[in-house]
Design the sequence.
């Protein structure tokens, strides 16, 4: 069910709060996806 | 008549030539009607829908799918990934033909095509986004022509001018990246003028960012897709270097495309979240939106990832095909399907058969010219006079 917003402040607080949590999740998800994507790459020897 | 002449005459009648010939003849007839009887006679465009298939497909999809040119040349010359060098010329050629056909299609769509140079040379609308797009496409087409020209000059044997142009490669690449960044994003920004017409799921303040990011993986996927077709039909034109590098190109580009596509899915959800449009996802429009985003972006990104891990060339090519369809679907959704979504169905736009014929005509002309060039000029192989000259 849609939330009712009476002020722009209410709307921004609601949408930005969810968005910032989402951004954190996406950044972690992208890092994990990169590990999956590059998981079988040949390791470069550093010694 | 000698046997060779007979074989040459016989080989002209191939299924490809027959189908291409029919489409080109039909296209020429519609072209005659378009330029003698006007837009109203051949299109279903009206005041509600002034932009139809010729903008949605020929222009928006054409520009997005031609992004392989700047992506590949940037990877090779700016980021120094020389192992992708063999992919540069085919990508530049595809981009050059793509943009040429975009401009050709634009001649059909604008009311007075002979005035197309006016905004560039006579009356600059510097506050207009469309002016910026026009200027960038004009400049980038010129850059692509110069970037492509060494192949034609090698074929023609014009060594001096070819060597001069090759020295400009880095400058041209930088120019190309700047111009592409500008107009790929601006094409998305064009739709920001219509917040009440475009469905909220597709409308976003981030439309320019979406268009630019999707052009990146569109270009990468197109290079892989085009490479797979070239391997099937022009295998004999490829030299050892091209054949050796082609697997690395497909896997490397697939890996990049996969990561960019997952990032794109992420920012699309951020766009929904910041506008608080979650409730639209449960409507029928939401199902269509998720079909586009999950089915044609997230799914191919995952297939790319599996293919790259398994080093499976066949799977990479399938993922590229789905991604290319995905970009086409996205551009058509924004310009046609989700545009004017609130109008009653009787007032919605659907392209006329002659608009579809012209779009097929433009694509067919591109394929025929592409075939003409790659069978004659050094695109998939290095010219013997310029071996390892890069």
Sequence:
């Amino acid at each position: 069910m849609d939330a009712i917003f009476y002020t722009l402040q209410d709307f921004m607080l609601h949408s930005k709060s969810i968005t910032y949590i989402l951004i954190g999740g996406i950044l972690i998800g992208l890092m994990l996806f990169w590990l999956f994507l590059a998981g079988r790459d040949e390791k470069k020897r550093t010694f | 008549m000698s046997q060779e002449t007979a074989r040459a005459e016989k080989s002209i009648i191939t299924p490809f030539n027959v189908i291409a010939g029919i489409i080109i003849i039909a296209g020429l007839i519609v072209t005659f009607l378009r330029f003698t009887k006007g837009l109203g006679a051949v299109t279903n465009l009206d005041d509600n829908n002034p932009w139809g298939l010729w903008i949605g497909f020929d222009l928006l999809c054409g520009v997005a799918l031609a992004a392989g040119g700047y992506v590949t040349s940037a990877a090779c010359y700016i980021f120094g990934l020389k192992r992708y060098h063999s992919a540069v010329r085919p990508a530049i050629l595809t981009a050059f033909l793509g943009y040429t056909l975009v401009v050709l299609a634009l001649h059909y769509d604008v009311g007075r095509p002979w005035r197309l140079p006016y905004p560039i040379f006579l009356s600059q609308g510097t506050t207009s986004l469309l002016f910026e797009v026009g200027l960038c496409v004009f400049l980038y087409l010129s850059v692509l022509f110069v970037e492509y020209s060494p192949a034609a000059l090698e074929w023609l044997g014009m060594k001096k001018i070819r060597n001069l142009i090759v020295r400009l490669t880095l400058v041209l690449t930088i120019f190309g990246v700047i111009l592409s960044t500008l107009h790929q994003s601006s094409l998305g920004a064009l739709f920001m003028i219509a917040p009440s017409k475009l469905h909220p799921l597709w409308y976003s303040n981030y439309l320019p960012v979406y268009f630019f990011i999707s052009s990146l993986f569109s270009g990468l996927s197109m290079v892989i897709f085009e490479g797979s077709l070239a391997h099937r039909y022009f295998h004999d034109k490829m030299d050892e270097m091209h054949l050796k590098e082609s697997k690395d190109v497909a896997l490397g580009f697939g890996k990049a495309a996969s990561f960019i596509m997952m990032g794109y899915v992420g920012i699309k959800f951020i766009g929904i979240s910041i506008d608080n449009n979650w409730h639209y996802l449960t409507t029928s429009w939401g199902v269509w939106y998720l079909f586009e985003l999950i089915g044609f972006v997230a799914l191919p990104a995952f297939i790319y990832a599996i293919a790259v891990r398994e080093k499976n060339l066949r799977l990479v090519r399938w993922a590229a095909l789905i991604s290319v369809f995905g970009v086409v679907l996205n551009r058509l959704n924004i310009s046609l399907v989700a545009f004017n979504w609130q109008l009653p169905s009787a007032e919605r736009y659907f392209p006329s058969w002659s608009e579809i014929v012209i779009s097929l005509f433009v694509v067919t002309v591109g394929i025929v010219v592409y075939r003409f060039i790659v069978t004659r000029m050094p695109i998939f192989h290095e010219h013997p006079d310029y071996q390892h000259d890069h």
Summary: Residues 17-381 of chain B form a domain with the Formate dehydrogenase/DMSO reductase fold fold (CATH 1.20.1630.10).
